[in-house]
Write a structure and sequence with these properties.
The protein is built from 10 helices and 9 strands. The chain has one domain: Alpha-Beta Barrel (TIM Barrel). It has 271 residues and is α/β, with parallel strands linked by helices. The structure holds pyridoxal-5'-phosphate.
Length: 271
């Protein structure tokens, strides 16, 4: 990635030791896959440190491991290391990947981040424990119907497009109050907080602050904000849950037919 939010990170997963210009046949093996257990350790320490700096209780911010596009074996290593909250960005991928893992680790909590198509609302309600991307009335209605049918009530975050970026998921700022009211009063959704994904390559703090004040105005206690490049800033601004992918699992593998790492949480969904 040529993203200055990701470059200067001493824990960056992409660093490889210089190989001294050896010919290919003498190059060391690329080495083992990233070790999620060691990275989990480092991340937990950084998270605790960020809490202390912000005068918050260490351990008070939930770390959600974003495992999208990564193979099951890598996820299993994080599970073995004790991680229990994971996020995927696509319903089908989660359906293919998670059933065997859930069977082995029944206390897993699976989060959905990234755009959610209305027609997949029912699958999202059955397959996930937390939904981070509720962002429009039609989706709220479909989720409410699926919850009524199945009796499952995953925690919901309303995603806010804090910079009003076109083509980005999230309810526009000026529509957020109305959507929140509708989610609660009309659809009775279990809304626990707000989520945002600040614009790429800019200071995320104003967006974190905006999300925090909006949540406070609505009496919502949870804030899903902060990723690999900015989770420490998010903790300073009040995040209760950070969504970290690359800093834990390394760069995401390329997928057929798509970019390796779509910033908005996957390809734009057709609604
Ligand atoms: C992929 C993704 C993340 C994780 O991003 P990293 O930069 O890998 O930490 C967090 N939130 C959302 C919504 C995502 O789509």
């Amino acid at each position: 990635m040529t993203d200055d939010r990701t470059a200067p990170d001493r824990n960056a997963p992409d660093c490889t030791a210089p190989d001294g210009g050896l010919p290919d046949s003498h190059r060391p093996d690329p080495g083992p896959a990233p070790d999620p257990a060691a990275r989990l350790d480092v991340l937990t320490r950084r998270l605790d440190e960020a809490c202390r700096r912000a005068g918050r209780e260490p351990g008070s911010v939930k770390l959600v491991a974003v495992s999208k596009y990564h193979p099951r074996e890598l996820v299993a290593a994080a599970l073995d290391a004790g991680q229990r909250d994971f996020a995927e960005s696509r319903v089908q991928e989660a359906r293919a990947k998670w059933p065997p893992l859930r069977a082995r680790y029944p206390d897993v909590r699976l989060h959905l981040v990234g755009a959610l198509q209305t027609k997949k609302a029912a699958a999202a309600v059955t397959g996930f424990d937390v939904l981070h991307s509720v962002d429009r009335p039609r989706l709220a209605a479909a989720l409410a119907a699926a919850m009524a049918r199945t009796g499952r009530r995953p925690d919901c975050f309303v995603q806010v497009n804090t910079a009003d970026e076109p083509h980005k998921s999230g309810v526009p700022l000026e529509a957020a109050d109305a959507l929140l009211k509708e989610c609660r009063d009309v659809y009775g959704l279990p809304v626990v907080g707000l989520m945002c994904l600040p614009p790429y390559g800019r200071d995320p703090r104003p967006h974190f602050r905006l999300l925090r004040s909006l949540a406070a105005a609505h009496g919502l206690s949870q804030l899903s904000m902060g990723m690999s490049a900015d989770f420490e800033a998010a903790v300073a601004e009040g995040a209760t849950l950070v969504r970290v992918g690359r800093a834990l699992f390394g760069p995401r593998p390329r997928r057929a037919g798509g970019p390796p790492d779509a910033r908005a949480g996957g390809p734009p969904a057709t609604r």
